[in-house]
Amino acid sequence: MSILEKAIQSAQQSEVSFSKFIKPNDTGATGGHQAGFHMHKNSWPLFFNSPGEKGSNKDHYVTIRWQDDFETSSRFIYYGVGTRNEYRLTRFGRGFPYLTDDNVGDLLVLVKKSADFFEGYVLSSDEDIEDFFAALNISSTETNGIIPKQVEQTSEDRLLQCFLAYVKSLQVDFPPTIDLANNARTCFISSYNITSNQIKSNPDKELLNWLEAEYSLFKTIENDRYSELIRTPFQSVEELVKSANTILNRRKSRAGKSLEHHLEEIFRISELIFQTQVTTENNKKPDFMFPNIESYNDPKFDENKLVLLASKTTCKDRWRQILNEADRIKTKHLFTLQQGISKNQLEEMNNYGVQLVVPRAYLSSFPTEHRANILTLEGFIEVVYATQT
């Protein structure tokens, strides 16, 4: 690791750090009181619990390890007696190499590791100094003082930055739904450091997170694409209605396919065997077939090991559409984001062999007496897995 890298890492991992350009006044070249680094008045938190008070001196002895190489027993002192009102860092021993005329213009970095132990670095090249500023998010005008602690970036901040970077990279007004779903999911997983094991252990939670992230990304794109449109007065009601319908239709068409894309990823991570959009009797195309259409078409394959899953964001009026999607499969599973269905409709679904699958968080919205017949996504995965092992 280079001296630059060590200086950056040390400053980033410390509660208090300081930087300044070395000046002639530090080296004694100006004929000042003594050689030693002049420290700005706001540097007192490096060494003291409170600022120095005019009328008295105070000091603090510390050990400083320089360039991760050698140590000095040094003195931080506040001069407040008489006309003086300054802080200095002194006592480096004979032959100290960083207080010469050649060091003027170098960057001094001091990092507090404990009350009495510090790390010191001196960066000489322009490139090293600029790289240090960039890593610590400061400019050359912000030296000669305590380096501001960088506020740790939150997961929400990282997610938004990932969204904005994606929007900026787009070459089209709106990307295909699958691209939108994939990028929203990728942004969420990377921003929140989600692992495959976390997804496997709680697929219900992660699915809802992905859906929410995708909708947020979609709205980010909308706000970017329509910002000029909504600032410009419409010339007629017809123009307003046309624009509104375009926006609403795009929203509706995205939602259904979005659910399918994220479910597919959940099943892939769960290591299930499945196919999507296969063709069965009467040219029907169920959303998910487990394990595959070859098994479904094989009359010798055990029907009890065939599973169908349809996905619909809402299903109050559309659940009957799945009844004839696969004649060999008696129980049709239907994943929905619908929250709450009447007892009569649930009983009718049960009579027709439809079993609902819902996110665990939505289960409480259904009548108590019917919850035992409703699967969570995790429960459905377990059912399918049992047919494939």
What characteristics describe this protein?
8-stranded mixed beta sheet, Restriction Endonuclease, alpha/beta, 389 residues, hydrolase, EcoRII_C_sf, single chain, 38% helix
Describe this structure in words.
There is one protein chain. This protein folds into three domains: 3-146, DNA-binding pseudobarrel domain (At1g16640 B3 domain), CATH 2.40.330; 156-269, no CATH class; 275-387, Restriction Endonuclease (3-Layer(aba) Sandwich). Strand 4 (70-79) and strand 5 form a beta hairpin. The chain is of the alpha/beta class and 389 residues long. The chain has twelve helices and 14 strands. The strands form two sheets. An eight-stranded mixed β-sheet has the order 2-5-4-3-7-6-1-8. Strands 9-10-11-12-13-14 form a six-stranded mixed β-sheet. It has helices at residues 3-12, 24-27, 126-136, 155-169, 177-191, 196-201, 203-225, 227-231, 237-269, 293-297, 343-351, 377-387, and strands at 16-21, 37-39, 58-66, 70-79, 86-90, 107-112, 117-123, 145-146, 275-276, 288-290, 307-312, 332-336, 354-358, 375-376. It comes from Marivirga arenosa. One of its GO terms (biological process) is DNA restriction-modification system. Residues 218-381 form the Restriction endonuclease type II EcoRII C-terminal domain. GO terms for molecular function: DNA binding; type II site-specific deoxyribonuclease activity. Keywords: Endonuclease, Hydrolase, Nuclease.
